[in-house]
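Good morning,

Attaching, inline, the backbone tokens for the sequence recovery test we're adding to the shared suite. The designed sequence is right after.
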């Protein structure tokens, strides 16, 4: 099913006039030639659509805040308001998807007048609202503890996925899912670091990098934050628990993480370093998500190294590696953020991620039997595991040549 039809099926009927009209924007693009003629019409329509959507969002948010304040002690009224709050969050997500997809389509037909979806969305209240996220957290907690079923959602109106898969929320099991735990790799995913003596540092402007002093290094390290890093973290922090899991040693990684927290204003709930990784015959630094103690149904790992996923392939979001170049554009905001936003609405992220990225299949094609990997990690011993994986270097070479599908499409 095409995106437009998928989107239309998820719209809440009584709010339909206030959604960004993807159909209208797509219709305008039919008249936009490769030269960019008609692009100004698209720009104007996009501004009009997002302005209407944001105005409704702000009005509805204020209405719900007033309702909750007036409903103090009234359980039924509070429950109804909390249901509306979660629906308003989904309203924001659907509009976010519509804008992102429309802009992407525009940039294909009018490459001479490119638009950044991030620059459009960052000014919209429905894209990132700390007030809504705070209220949504209250709503999730209330619905989880009270077990209030959201009977007012019909099968079509219930929070659903953009991929067409069942949302996993039955009529009698509509408690809000717990917060998503987003585990983030550091090097080549969020940042890229080099020595200040390197040619890359000399070529790039100083204002594109951070100079960080480390106790174990004689000279400061030049760290390049990936474009959009601050906005990416701020957009996720309200509705997700953010964890850093790096294969780097703590003396190296900790000062960089400190800098990220200061610049973004976002605090990571946990930091895991090389000592927390799992040594396996095929990789010395596998990231076993079970060490977190979180619900793996609501945990996702974003990493550029596919070997990091080998113990949890169904929780993987493969990331395009970044090496400090300016060509990365808005990858974090336009490619990764939509994926994580979608996962926030799913009770169990694993079926969807396995279908989208098929990491288990990818490992199998590379010659890695996933059950064998898991058994080796669970106690069969390094010696036994080594005998089970003859020619491990050949395996790693094959994996290096065969990159998995990364989060590169909305």
């Amino acid at each position: 099913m095409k995106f437009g039809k998928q989107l239309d099926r998820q719209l809440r009927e009584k709010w339909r006039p206030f959604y960004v009209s993807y159909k209208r924007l797509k219709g305008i693009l039919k008249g936009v030639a490769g030269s960019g003629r008609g692009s100004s019409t698209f720009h104007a329509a996009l501004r009009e659509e997002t302005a209407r959507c944001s105005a409704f969002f702000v009005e509805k948010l204020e209405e719900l805040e007033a309702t909750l304040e007036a409903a103090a002690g009234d359980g039924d009224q509070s429950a109804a308001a909390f249901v509306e709050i979660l629906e308003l969050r989904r309203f924001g997500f659907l509009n976010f998807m519509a804008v992102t997809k429309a802009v992407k389509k525009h940039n294909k037909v009018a490459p001479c007048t490119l638009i950044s979806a991030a620059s459009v969305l960052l000014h919209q209240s429905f894209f990132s609202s700390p007030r809504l996220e705070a209220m949504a957290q209250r709503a999730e907690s209330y619905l989880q503890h009270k077990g209030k079923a959201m009977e007012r959602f019909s099968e079509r109106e219930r929070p659903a996925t953009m991929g067409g898969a069942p949302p996993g929320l039955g009529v009698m099991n509509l408690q809000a899912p717990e917060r998503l735990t987003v585990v983030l790799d550091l090097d080549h995913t969020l940042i890229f670091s080099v020595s200040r003596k390197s040619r890359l540092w000399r070529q790039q402007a100083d204002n594109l990098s951070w100079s960080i002093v480390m106790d174990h290094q004689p000279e400061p390290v030049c760290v390049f934050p990936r474009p959009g890093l601050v906005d990416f973290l701020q957009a996720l922090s309200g509705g997700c628990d953010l964890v850093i899991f790096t294969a780097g040693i703590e003396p190296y990684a900790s000062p960089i993480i400190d800098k990220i927290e200061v610049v973004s204003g976002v605090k990571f709930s946990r930091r895991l370093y090389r000592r927390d990784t799992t040594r396996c015959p095929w990789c010395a630094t596998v990231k076993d998500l079970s060490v977190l103690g979180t619900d793996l149904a609501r945990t996702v790992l974003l990493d550029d190294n596919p070997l990091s996923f080998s113990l949890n392939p169904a929780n993987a979001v493969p990331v395009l590696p970044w090496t400090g170049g300016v060509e990365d554009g808005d990858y974090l905001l336009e490619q990764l953020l939509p994926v994580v936003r979608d996962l926030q609405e799913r009770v169990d992220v694993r079926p969807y991620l396995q279908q989208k990225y098929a990491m288990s299949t990818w490992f199998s094609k590379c010659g890695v039997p996933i059950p064998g990997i898991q058994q080796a990690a669970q106690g069969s011993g390094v010696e036994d595991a080594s005998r089970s994986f003859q020619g491990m270097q050949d395996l790693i070479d094959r994996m290096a040549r065969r990159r998995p599908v990364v989060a590169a499409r909305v």
